[in-house]
């Protein structure tokens, strides 16, 4: 057991007190883990669009004060009652979803949508007792996605932790706990392009480029990137993208342009923007008979899109993907091994680094649309 096990740990955390206002570095108290919980020391974290979205209070239920952050790496400090899969010193990735191991989804080889631990953006407390593990002078501070990694220490459910190779550099693999794995898995696990396939990627942000990386790893012969921002095209070449199309430059639907470029349509398409029109285009640009379109981007929950049923009857397939169909505890360690074995290049996703004391710079960079992932060093 660690010397701090069972004790409250005072530490620094970047607290969001109000929507859209800079995070404030505060001294918080982090309570010990309860049953089936693990307290971890966060070593590195990065900023994801989901953090930005809820910080701006564009989500369903604004909840403040709150500690954001969900893409991170850390080391186990102590474990709660009933935790047998982790011990002090384990290197881990906290994940915004989870794997309880007991529900129908966890027992299914096809699903990663755990009944108990699937993403819940509205919950600000721990499942065990409905209370927060964070406080300032007795005032509870809300959790975010069950992870809250913008704190030097955090408490998570043991089912939302992946134990990884201790030799993996934590300042690199931290980005694998959300966006990169989401895009990568949407290609490798859901779209499953064959060697020599043509693949279209809609949206060339970090998730879309991770989907392109998956297509490159799978051996796609042509990877067509579609984005409204031409500045992204040069960067995308590093991720295997071979051709670029800007819908703004076209005088007809982009699906028609892609169908003409590819003799009837691409073999696979992955939509990573959440834009309804892009979803329609991604589906309608795949080839009849065998084409598969995968939706990754998250639209407004009330959004609806339309397509002609004949597009489905012509043996096109439309699929959805959640976290790249990776089961967090079972599958994420193998994604880290892909990096360790030099099959997956993570370094090119990390475009900026800032110390924890300057975490608001990461928000500024994302608001300006600069870079892909900004890694935050918790010890600086």
UniProtKB/TrEMBL annotation:
Residue ranges of the TM segments: none
Entry's Gene Ontology BP terms: formaldehyde catabolic process
Taxonomic superkingdom: Eukaryota
Keyword Metal-binding: yes
Subcellular location: Cytoplasm
Ranges of residues in domain Alcohol dehydrogenase-like N-terminal: 37-164
Listed CDD domains: alcohol_DH_plants
PANTHER family: ALCOHOL DEHYDROGENASE, ALCOHOL DEHYDROGENASE 1-LIKE
Name under which the protein is recorded: alcohol dehydrogenase
Organism annotation: Linum tenue
């Amino acid at each position: 057991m660690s010397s701090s096990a069972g004790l409250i740990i005072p530490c620094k955390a970047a607290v969001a007190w109000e929507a859209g206002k800079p995070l404030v570095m505060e001294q918080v108290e982090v309570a010990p883990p309860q049953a089936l919980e693990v307290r971890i020391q966060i070593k590195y974290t990065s900023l994801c669009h989901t953090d930005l979205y809820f910080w701006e209070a564009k989500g369903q239920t604004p909840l403040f004060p709150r500690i954001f952050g969900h893409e991170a790496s850390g080391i186990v400090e102590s474990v709660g009652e009933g935790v047998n899969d982790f011990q002090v010193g384990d290197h881990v990735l906290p994940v915004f979803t989870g794997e309880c191991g007991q529900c129908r989804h966890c027992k299914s080889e096809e699903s990663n949508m755990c009944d108990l631990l699937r993403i819940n953006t509205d919950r600000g407390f721990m499942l065990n007792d409905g209370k927060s593990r964070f406080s300032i002078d007795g005032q509870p501070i809300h959790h975010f996605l069950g992870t809250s990694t913008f704190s030097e220490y955090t408490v998570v459910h043991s089912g939302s932790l992946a134990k990884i190779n201790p030799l993996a550099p934590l300042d690199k693999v931290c980005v694998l706990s959300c966006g990169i794995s989401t895009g990568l898995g949407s290609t490798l696990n859901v779209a499953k392009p064959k060697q020599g396939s043509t693949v279209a990627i809609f949206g060339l942000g970090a998730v879309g480029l991770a989907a392109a990386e998956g297509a490159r790893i799978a051996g796609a012969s042509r990877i067509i990137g579609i984005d409204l921002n031409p500045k992204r095209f040069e960067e995308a070449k590093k991720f295997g993208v071979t051709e670029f199309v800007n819908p703004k430059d076209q005088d007809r639907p982009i699906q028609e342009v892609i169908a003409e470029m590819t003799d009837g349509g691409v073999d696979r398409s992955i939509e990573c923007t959440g834009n309804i029109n892009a979803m329609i285009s991604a589906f309608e640009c795949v080839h009849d008979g065998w084409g598969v379109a995968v939706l990754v981007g998250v639209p407004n929950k009330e959004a609806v899109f339309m397509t002609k049923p004949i597009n489905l009857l012509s043996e096109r397939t439309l699929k959805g993907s959640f976290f790249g169909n990776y089961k967090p505890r079972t599958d994420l360690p193998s994604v880290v091994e892909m990096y360790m074995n030099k099959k997956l290049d993570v370094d090119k996703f990390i475009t900026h680094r800032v110390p924890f004391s300057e975490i608001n710079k990461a928000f500024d960079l994302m608001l300006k649309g600069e870079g892909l992932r900004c890694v935050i060093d918790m010890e600086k």
